[in-house]
Amino acid sequence: MSPHHYNSNAKPTALLPETVRRQSFFTPGTSSKKAAVFIDGSNWYHKLKKLLAVPQPGDIRSMRPPVDFDVRTFATELVTPETLTDIRYYIGKIRRIRGDMKSETLYGKQQKLLRFLQKQNVHLGLGHLIAYPDGSFHEKGVDILLAVEMIRLALDGRYDVAYLVSSDTDLVPAVEECIRLGKEVVYVGSSLHGQSFGLSEVCTKTILLQPKDVLPYVPLKQL
User: Fold this and answer.
1) pTM of this prediction?
2) What are residue 23's phi and psi, to 5 degrees?
3) H or E element in which residue 180 lies
4) Which of 55, 77, 116, 213 could crosslink 209 through cysteines, CB 3.0-4.6 Å?
């Protein structure tokens, strides 16, 4: 992966007291537990967009989530002290329509994102993105794919703890099944994007991110 400079001095400090991870107290990999991070790409984008829109000290202006957000380091530190074994990112694949400017633009941006994630050794799960007559786009099959892989990897013993970065309550049955299989599931939501109380109720633990928790992984050129 080509080097990127990140704001490594801005340590995450704003997690809620009952879920806070004091990262300086831990060394990644000190726990025997294996952790996998499952990211609902569209849900995560909107979470991150709201978190980055909050004005910060030092004249950090609101920004769109950058393609080169350091997902790998974010996930590694999120799961500490467990050992990160897998990052899985799920998104609806944009169909390229040659000659259609909107389609070409969206396709190009998504391809750039997918290439960067692949360079970070992030496993991609691709659903479908369906265009509606009103010009809007809707994902199909993404939540089903995420749910199936959470359960499949649990059955295969690939993780002890799953970190679910999504607020989609459709995933509640999958979470319940993974817990029935003896796994822990941590719901990772946003304090600014509408907490899923359905997921908070069934998950082993809840982490609600605040702006300070994501800024360290934004490239400095974006700040």
Assistant:
1) 0.81
2) -65, -30
3) helix 172-180
4) 213
